[in-house]
Structure formats: C-alpha cells, structure tokens
Amino acid sequence: MTTSLVTPGTEIGTVGEHQAGEGTTTIENRIIATTTGYIRIEDGNIIVDASKSIVNIEIGDTVLCVFEKLQEKGGEARILAVEGKNGDVLPHQLHGHFHVTRIVDRFLHTVADAVRRRDIARAVVTEIEPVVRLDFRERDDCGVLHAICPSCGDTLEAHVNGDWNVACPSCGYEGYRALADNFAAGWADLDQGASALNLSGKRWGRDAEQLFAHGSSGRATYIAADVREDGRERSYFRFEGQGQGGGRGRKSAPGCRLFVGGLPKEVDTEQLRELFGKHGDMTDCIVMTDDSGASRGFGFVTYTEKTHADAAIKALDGHRLHGRRIGVRDADNKQKRTKGPEKGLKLYVGNLPFDADEKAITSFFGDQATINEVAIATDKGGKPKGFAFVFINEKDKGDDVVKALNGKELNGRRIKVDISQAGGRKKPQGGKSSREQKAIAEEKGNKKRRR
After folding, report:
1. Of 14, 86, 263, 325, whose CB is crowded by the most CB atoms within 10 A?
2. Quick one: CATH architecture of 257-336?
3. Residue 268 Cα to chain centre, angstroms
4. Burial of 258 per CB tally in 10 Å (0-12, 13-18, 19+)
C-alpha cells in the first residue's frame, strides 16, 4: 500500500498501469485525482481516500446558506452545510440559485424586499441539475435565521411594526425579512414560530409601498450618526468639480468662483488648473465636457480668496490660449453674465474641407483681416461639420472681406464666406432671404412650363 497526499487535478497514474478507482477520473489516458486525500492501490485500482468526506447534495435536502448575490428577480446563496450530512460540499454544488417567488408568500418587487446580503437562512433543495435550486417558502422552518443591521452591523431582532418585522436595538432601523420559525434562536421552542411574523398573503401598507416606489436606491442605508459618533472629526468624499451646480456641494465665498469661456477643445482640466494655479490657491477646477468626453469650451475655477480670483481675471481675461482669446469673469455676478469679451465681426465660412483646422482657416484669410477667434462646428463625436465661424477685428470691412474671399479655393474646395446674422443664420447675398430666392425660382419654373 502506498500513501501520498494529493489535491484535485494531480496526475497520479496512467491507464494501463492501473485502473481509475474512487476519488479519481480519467482524462486522455491519465488518471487524475478529484479530491484531496491519500493514494492507495488495491487490486490494480488506484484510489484516493478523501481526507474529509464529500457531501453530494440531493433533491429534498435541507441546507444552511448565506446570501451573496441579489438581483431584481433572483439571487445566489453560498451553501454552508447540509443538515444531517457531514463533509464538504462538491464545488459545482457550492452555490444555490433561487427566484423571487420562492422566498416568501407575499408579493415582492425585488429580492431585496425580503432578504439582504450576509443574511443566513435555511432552504430546501428542489433541483440539482443543471444548477442547485433553493426554496425558502416551502416550510415554516425555512427562511432567514440570522440577519444584521445594514446601518450599524448589530444583530436584528424580531419586532412587528406595521409591515416591518425586524428592528435594530442600537440605531432603530426597521425592515422586513422572510423569517424562519427559529429566527434569532429560541423561536422554535414557542407555540408560534417567527414565520407567523411574515404576514403571508397580506398586501403591503402605504409606508412600505412608498419605500419600494423609490427603487433600489430607496432601500439603501447609510451608517447611522448616533452609532459611530465617537468625537472624531468627520470628512466626506467630494468628486472633482462637485459644487458647481445642484446646490449640493460646499458654496464658495462671493467673488471666488470664476467662469472661463472660449476654451480651445484640446484644453482639459489639468491644463486649466496649471494656467490658473499661478494666481492663487484653488479649491476646485474643472473643464465641462459632453457625453462623449469632448470639451464644451468652458469651465469653472474656484479660489480660496477673492483677491486671488480678481488677480486671475485681470491677468487672464482676453488671454490667448492656443490661438483663441478666453474670457474670465465672476461666475456669481449676474450683471456680467450676458456680456462676454468683445470678439469682433462674425463671419460664416462654409463648404470647408473636413481636414481644415484653425491654422488652415487663418492662412486662408491671410492679410485680409485680423482674426480674433475661429470656431469650427463639430458634431457630438467631435467630427467637423464642414463650416465655421470666424470673428475679425475689422468691423467696418466685412463686405470687403466677403468680396475678396467668397468663392476662393481651399484644398480644392470653393469656400463660401458671408457675414453671419444673429441666431446662426448667415446674411443672404443680394438682400433676399433663401425663402424669397426659392419662391422666385419656383415662379420662373412655372412660367417656363406655361410657355
């Protein structure tokens, strides 16, 4: 007899020399151990005697489990032990699955209405293939045996108050659990078990329905202040940029929060922080982005003192950044919100090649005008739309610039240049709108048909 300790997956022999016995399996003429134990050879069979017995779960077994995964209509519990059987559970039977309808005899919006993670429960096995299925409502002794308070971690006690049947003695938390008869130990010795507190078959009251209506977030709980109050100073996590809207963040002192507009698309939060950090200590700095992560062309900077914010406005308002002039102002000053830095005369530039950038457009204008800013229109993904708006310093020379550049080629395309009107509509040539020109064209077409 040979004795040697092996673990599952260890190759212990080959087919031909020995035959696979108990505790082994055959894979490609190799004999592999399937359990942890000691090898012995008996009558040509190689056997692995398990160091600890293995439990094979069967339909009808009663198991003790702990809830690990909770979803809306189902969940998963890790099986701790099989009542009446000693030994380890097989790996493929270690977790049992259950449906929301098999927890308790009441309507549940989600699994979290009746059980929580880390609750210990008793269940009956109803299926073993292809996965282990558990049932908590088949018998009164099945259900939650032990539960802890989600707020403070203390052990919950059975206590009925309306729809709620458990309560925390420390923080006052109240909730509902699908209780087994011997919940919290000792109930099984009474004439009426704790399962009677489940109020089977009854409708939920108003308070419970109001809580469930909030969805999963309505069931979330936080650490109770009266439980962890030990004199230590509290600190709370704050996301970068929080406090710029919604009224939930810490409000800055008047004059300390600045709005920064006209930012180039390539400037991010770190570059903005580097630029404004030279003028004082900041508590917050962010460049606002859209859903795709592209810059929206503006941001916010908050200083610790108003003198630092005033110094930043004086130094950076109108400052050129990557060829564009940025505007810096007090974000809380309502009188200046509608007034930005003077950009000049706005021109519409259309039929642009998609690869045309600010440098190419500036070169296209040449010495015809002094460009203050170039704004290339893009979609949500940041791709150019084929037109742009150019702000020139010479307000009284708009017609001359249009006459000189309209129809000229840029990278093989004839460029349209015109003076832009308010609302993004370009000024029509010849003094007629596009609608009037379309009506004239239709009249000419009708005359030709009549002829």
Report:
1. 263
2. 2-Layer Sandwich (3.30)
3. 22
4. buried
The strand pair at 95-99 and 74-82 is best described as antiparallel
Decide: 306 and 281 in contact? Cβ < 8 Å. no
What single-letter DSSP state applies at residue 236?
Answer: -
**DSSP E strands: which ranges in 262-399?**
282-289, 295-303, 320-321, 324-325, 327-330, 345-350, 371-378, 384-392
What CATH number matches the domain at 5-51, 3.30.360.10, 3.40.50.720, 2.40.50.100, 3.50.50.60? 2.40.50.100
Tokens encoding 277 = 């950090």
Compute and round to an integer the Cα radius of gyration of the chain.
37
Tell me the per-residue pLDDT of 359-394, one tens digit each, with 9 for 90 and over. Answer: 888 888 888 888 888 888 888 777 888 898 888 888
Residue 371, CA distances (Å) to 236, 286, 368, 389 in order? 47, 28, 9, 11
What is the DSSP-derived secondary structure letter of residue 426? B
Those residues of the chain that have pLDDT short of 70 are 1-3, 185-192, 214-251, 334-342, 422-440, 442-451
Q: Is 450 helix (H, G, I), strand (E, B) or coil?
A: helix
The correct CATH number of 345-431 out of 3.60.40.10, 3.30.1330.100, 3.40.50.40, 3.30.70.330 is 3.30.70.330
> Which tokens in the block code for residue 16?
């031909």
